[in-house]
Each structure stands twice: as C-alpha cells, then as structure tokens.
Amino acid sequence: MTEQLDAEMLKVIVFQLGDKEYALPVHQVQGIEKSVHITRVPRTANYVKGVINLRGVVTPIIDLRERFAIPFLEEEDDTRIIIISHEDMEVGFIVDAANDVMDLPKISIEPQPEVVDSMEEEFIAGVAKVDKRLLILLNLEKVLNTLK
Amino acid sequence: MDTNQYLEVFIDESNEHLQSCSENLLVLEKNPQDTAIVNEIFRNAHTLKGMSATMGYEDIANLTHKMENVLDAIRNDKMVVTPELLDVVFESVDHLEEMVADISGGGNGKKDVTQTVEKLRRLENGEPLEGTSATQEEEISITSDDAIQSSELAFDDFEKTVLEQSSEQGFETVEIRVTLRDDCLLKAARVYMIFEILEKLGDVIKSVPTVEKLEDEQFDSSFAVAFVTKDTPEDLKQKLMKVSEVETVIITQIAVKKLSTQPNEQEEVTTAQIQAIAVTPKSEEKQVTTTKSNGHNSSKTIRVNIERLDILMNLFEELVIDRGRLQSIATELNHSELNETTERMTRVSGDLQNIILNMRMVPVETVFNRFPKMVRQLSRDLNKKINLEIIGAETELDRTVIDEIGDPLVHLIRNALDHGVESPEERLAAGKPEVGSVELRAYHSGNHVFIEIEDDGAGINRQRVLEKALAKGVITEESVASLSNKQIDELILASGFSTADVISDVSGRGVGLDVVKSTIEALGGSVSIESEQGKGSLFSIQLPLTLSIISVMLVEIEKEVYAIPLSSIIETSIIKTSDIMNAHNQKVIDFRGKVVPLVFLDETFDVPRASNDNDGFHSVVLVRKGDKMAGLVVDSFIGQQEIVLKSLGNYLSNVFAISGATILGNGQVALIVDCNSLIK
C-alpha cells in the first residue's frame, strides 16, 4: 500500500507569491538562494530583472510577480531566488518566500479550473489541494517561453 | 591485463606516432634517398607495434609489423622508394589512423586490412602489386592448423617479435613437449604445477592447446609450450620430470630466425625477409642512437586532461573574485601589513593567471599538420597537381578554438582544391604553372588570430554564382544590382549553395561552406572572401585569440558597470558639451577631422538616472568596426582589466548590444558591450 502511494507521489517545492502558494517539482529546482545583487540587462522584457553571479555562472533572473502581473512588492528578508533548470536553461525566479518541501499525491492534482481570474492562467499546469492549502503547479515551459 | 588505465595514453601516443609517420612519409616522398627519415618512420611504426600488441589490438600490431618489414627493407637498401610503395604505406597509415580513431571512439580497433597487408607483403617479396595469388589470410590459417596437428608451434607476429627480442637478450627459446601418463587423474593440477615451475624459470610465450583449455583438461595427454629461459634444456627437463605423473618431457630448441619465416614458407619466400630480420639487432642500435640525440632537444611535458584545466580555470576565477574583495577590504582598513600581503598576493595571482591562460594555448600546428597528407591524397583523387604551403603553424590559439576550427578548415581546403585550383591542362592553357599552389597562413593581429587559405586557381565565377543564387532562391532579382563583388563572392557561404556543376564527394554537397560560416561565427569569428577571376581566391578567417579571456575597459554609467572590449577601442577622450554637433538628428563630434557619431549608452541601455547633473564634459570611448567609428558616451572610465567572458545563458540568448557578461572583483556581474551592433 505504502509503496503504491510512494509511486504516486510528486515531491514539490512550495513557494509564496502574493497571497497564493505555488509549487514546482523538486527535480526541476537546482537550489534556493538568498537575494543577491542583480545586474540589470537593458532592452529585455520587463519581468527579466537581470543576471546574477551564481557561483561563477551568470544566471538570468525572472521576477515572477512581474511575469504574472501581480503588483510589485518591496524586497524583504524572506525574498528568495529559486534556481530552476528546464531543458538547457538555468533561470532564477524571484519569489516572496520559499515555504516548504512536500510530497504531493499525484491523484490530488487536478487540471486548472475553467475560470481563473488573472493573467496567470496560461502558466498553470494544474492545481492541487492538500489539507486546506491550494497549490498552483507551474507550467515551466509557458513561463519561460515567450522570450525564445 | 587491465589496460583501461593506459588506454588514453595509448591513443594519444599512437596519434602522435601516426602523425609523425605521415609527416615523415611526406618528407620521404620528396627525398626518396634519405634513409634517416626511413629510420624515423621505422621507429614510429615499431613503437606503435609494441604498444598495440601490449594493448591487445592485434590488427594494428599486424599491420604495423608488415609496414615495418617494408621500411626495414628500404633502409637496408633492399628496396627503393617508389610512388607505388609510398601509396601503400600511406594507405596503411590511413588504416591505422582509422583503427586508432575507432579505439578512441570506444570501439575495439578491428578492421579488415587484409588487402593492405597483402600489398605490403607483395612489396616485401618484390612481387608486383597487381595480379592474383591466394590471400594471405587463408594461408596463415592453413599454417596454424598444420602446426597444431604436427605438434609444431606457430607464432603470430607479436610472439615472433618477443622471441626475437629475447634471443637478442641471450635467452634460449625452446619448445617443451610434455606428455602426461595415460592414467593421470588430475591433469589440470599437473598442468598447473608444470606452469608454476616454468614461470619461475622463464617466460611461457605460447602453449598449444591454450592455457585455458589445458586448465579445463581439454587435451589428450600431451601439450607443447614455447618457452624462453636462461636455463639449459637438461636442467629444465629434470625439474619438469619431478612433477608426478609426467611421462616424458621433450625439449627442442627453436631457431628464432628460421621461425620468423615460417608463416611464409608455403609462399616461396625470397631471402629478403630473412635478411631483413637478421639485421634487426643492428637497426635497433641505430634506433637507440637516434632516440638519444632526440632526447636532448625535447622539453619535458606531461599530459593533462583539458577538463582539469577547465576546473583549474574556474577555481582561479573564484580566486580572482576573492582577491578583489580582499583588496577592497584592505583599502578600507588601511592596515599596512594587510596591504602589503594583499599586494603580494595580487602579484602572485597575476602571474598564476598568465600561466593558466598560456597553458590553454595550443599551436595551430595541431590542426594544420593533418592537411599535407589530405592535400596529397585529394590532389591525386582529383588528378590535379597542387603544392600546399603552410606558414605560421606555430601561432597559438586557445584550445577550445583549436578544437572547433579543424572541420571548417578541412571544408575550405577541400573547396580550394576541388573548385579553386584548375586541372593541369587548364592551368597550362591559361598560362599558369602546371602545379597549383594553396597557401595556408596563420598569424596574430591585435586580439585576433587570422587564418587564411589562398589559392592561385580560377577564382570565383561571379556570373555563375549569381545564376545559382537566383536559381536556388538565395537572393532575389531586385537585389542583384545592389550587390558588391565582395557580397557576391560571399554568397557561396550561404546555405544550400554549391557551384560545382558536378557534385563531388570531395567538397561535398554545398552544405560545407555555410557550415564553415556558422561554425566560425559561433566561435565569435568571421569569414571573408577576396577573389579575382583567373587569379585565385583568398578565404580569411578571423578568430578571437581566446574564447574565455578578453581585455576590456570598464566604464560606469550611473551605478552600472559595463565592459567594452579593448580590441574595438581606438582611444578614450573627454569632450565638452559644446563640441557636440547635430547632423540629421544625430549627435556627432569632430574627431581629428572625421565626423564621428555619438552613442549615449545611458539612453541606449535605458539606465535609470537619479539626477540629470551635467558638468559640461562627457567621457567618450571611441570604438571602431572595420573602417567605421562611433563614440560611446559614458559617465566615467574605471580602467582596463582582463576579464573572463561568460555567456548570459540560453534564456537570454539575443540581447541587443550585449555580447556577454563577466564577473567582477566584487562578485557582481558586468555586461560586455557589443560595439559591432552599436555602429551602423
């Protein structure tokens, strides 16, 4: 029984953005960094905050608030950069806080509801309800796509 | 034997020996009388044979052995160097290269080389190359079958070499035939005991049946071993007879010289080979002397994996960043001893940086040296007479660039040979010397390395290029008139273009040249063509000296730091606001009599301005692209620095006017300005 459960589990990193909680599969996450100096890169999309020096590798940073058109928030102590790796790209996401690592039963993941109020609709791969928390799973492909 | 740990060394060294073989063969072709060169080639082949036999690559060992026989005959004046002979030797070297390439690609180095082996054998025996005779392969197998039946030992080439060498060193070679008693119960145990005794006394070269079979008791009652020892046969016999249940021990001496000819006995061997082997010791003496004289000149080197150098480089970058931090802390604290130590460290790490960067530099020779053979082969295939001249092979380039430029150069040289240089008849008709010339040049210029390929062939037929380009849809009718000659020439670098009327397998299907262009551009370089019809063409490749380190000038705009490559900077200057003039909505300055447009980087890069205070002066960096210039207006100059070039990552692949990034001493990222895209 347990074995079967394990197989159906998805380990995710849960992070906070505005008043919502989002999740990314742990295998796509390279690490979580505290905020460091970001060098602005001119003439890029508004949500590209710039690049950082991640242990000798120049890594682009995307502000997910800007990307999802969530109102701007002043940087706080909790602000984190989640480094993700997708296909051959390494990108950092600025998030309000990194909350949790948890096992998500795959069964609890549902396709996104038909009506979602905001612009972020297209970036959602699904939603999961765990206890009383609603986790939004991101579609990395879409989040990263437009710049290509 | 576990040979894996030696595999890399084997591959590296084999390649070196093969390279030197082909180089020397080319020299030999020009001076057929020079036996010193033959000796050199012989030595290479000999080493290669030894190594490959040790590593268990029998095909290589076999082929090199045959090649060696031929070379040996040449240097002992038993044979003269003829073009046919060289062709066969070249062919063998080609095969060997393929086999070594196969091994380095993870293969087993096996290849069917019987044809070449047969050719070498015929050369050796003075038979004509053409004509029919039974293949070597069959005869060898017959010999070895016979050997087992008639209980004589047959030796392969490697074993023969070992036997020859041990006899030179004063060892006796004997064949020992041991017969066990018919009622022997523990045959394997007896075999084991006999081998144990033998191994104490000398070396077992071969046994029939094989040791594995013997240990599995897969033999009747007797077996034979070839054995090299310093003991006398009588002693041997006595010691072996002490093993229980041994019926008889027959020991016969093997004459090494006679044995060497054995596989060829049925082929009516001429005396050439026997003599060839008989003189081996003498030739090896010669070899020793040449090795000694060479040994003095060569500097000591070790092989280092390029990955380790990369790791070293990365670690050093981290060190540089920390060095920068330390420097700023030291300045802040103003502690004299700390300052002193930091300065020392800065100097030492500066030297270290130079060394690390230089370690990655490799002469282009490593790429160029395969071309003479290629040109020789190609000109034969194409029935053209071509002389390749290489200039500046010692020019150094970063290892990463070297690795990439091989293929593009092959394409360009093939192109020059196939499409550039005309056939001898055409050349004579055009009043040119019969032999065409292709010149391969490499040289440093500024922060770049230029590699040029020039031929004195037909040049580019612009009319045909245009027709083709139109037919293939590379350009449109309307644009034809506006194209300059240079632009037309460069159309042949466009994809899907081939001007050869007949698609040949030499220069491919026209996919070659656009690949050349894209590869070179991916390396941060460029390709240009100059051509004059009837006179020849010049392909010029411009490459950055190194991919990883460049000299830049750091400038500041508000709080942002940007790096401008020194290679594009002409000079820096401070101008008054009143010097700025307007021309067609474009701000320009008069710089030494030239009108130079100004680019305000803060506007171009949308730098957020805290305040708009202007003291009436502007710092300007004058940059150029070809013969065009521009002045980049910045807030202040920080200074010159060597930086490590990094990419912005795949996500930000196409940012306007930014060619990359680097990490500064304080750990922050600075962007590198791409001056080329700022100059229109």
Automatic annotation (TrEMBL), chain A:
<dbReference type="GO" id="GO:0006935">
    <property type="term" value="P:chemotaxis"/>
</dbReference>
<dbReference type="Pfam" id="PF01584">
    <property type="entry name" value="CheW"/>
</dbReference>
<protein>
    <submittedName>
        <fullName>Chemotaxis protein CheW</fullName>
    </submittedName>
</protein>
<dbReference type="InterPro" id="IPR039315">
    <property type="entry name" value="CheW"/>
</dbReference>
<dbReference type="InterPro" id="IPR002545">
    <property type="entry name" value="CheW-lke_dom"/>
</dbReference>
<dbReference type="GO" id="GO:0005829">
    <property type="term" value="C:cytosol"/>
</dbReference>
<feature type="domain" description="CheW-like">
    <location>
        <begin position="9"/>
        <end position="148"/>
    </location>
</feature>
<dbReference type="GO" id="GO:0007165">
    <property type="term" value="P:signal transduction"/>
</dbReference>
<dbReference type="InterPro" id="IPR036061">
    <property type="entry name" value="CheW-like_dom_sf"/>
</dbReference>
TrEMBL record, chain B:
<dbReference type="InterPro" id="IPR004358">
    <property type="entry name" value="Sig_transdc_His_kin-like_C"/>
</dbReference>
<feature type="domain" description="CheW-like">
    <location>
        <begin position="549"/>
        <end position="680"/>
    </location>
</feature>
<keyword id="KW-0902">Two-component regulatory system</keyword>
<dbReference type="InterPro" id="IPR002545">
    <property type="entry name" value="CheW-lke_dom"/>
</dbReference>
<keyword id="KW-0067">ATP-binding</keyword>
<dbReference type="InterPro" id="IPR008207">
    <property type="entry name" value="Sig_transdc_His_kin_Hpt_dom"/>
</dbReference>
<dbReference type="Pfam" id="PF02895">
    <property type="entry name" value="H-kinase_dim"/>
</dbReference>
<dbReference type="InterPro" id="IPR036641">
    <property type="entry name" value="HPT_dom_sf"/>
</dbReference>
<dbReference type="InterPro" id="IPR037006">
    <property type="entry name" value="CheA-like_homodim_sf"/>
</dbReference>
<dbReference type="InterPro" id="IPR035891">
    <property type="entry name" value="CheY-binding_CheA"/>
</dbReference>
<dbReference type="InterPro" id="IPR036097">
    <property type="entry name" value="HisK_dim/P_sf"/>
</dbReference>
<protein>
    <recommendedName>
        <fullName>Chemotaxis protein CheA</fullName>
        <ecNumber>2.7.13.3</ecNumber>
    </recommendedName>
</protein>
<feature type="domain" description="Histidine kinase">
    <location>
        <begin position="297"/>
        <end position="547"/>
    </location>
</feature>
<dbReference type="Pfam" id="PF07194">
    <property type="entry name" value="P2"/>
</dbReference>
<dbReference type="GO" id="GO:0005524">
    <property type="term" value="F:ATP binding"/>
</dbReference>
<dbReference type="InterPro" id="IPR005467">
    <property type="entry name" value="His_kinase_dom"/>
</dbReference>
<dbReference type="InterPro" id="IPR051315">
    <property type="entry name" value="Bact_Chemotaxis_CheA"/>
</dbReference>
<keyword id="KW-0597">Phosphoprotein</keyword>
<dbReference type="InterPro" id="IPR036890">
    <property type="entry name" value="HATPase_C_sf"/>
</dbReference>
<dbReference type="Pfam" id="PF02518">
    <property type="entry name" value="HATPase_c"/>
</dbReference>
<dbReference type="InterPro" id="IPR010808">
    <property type="entry name" value="CheA_P2-bd"/>
</dbReference>
<dbReference type="InterPro" id="IPR004105">
    <property type="entry name" value="CheA-like_dim"/>
</dbReference>
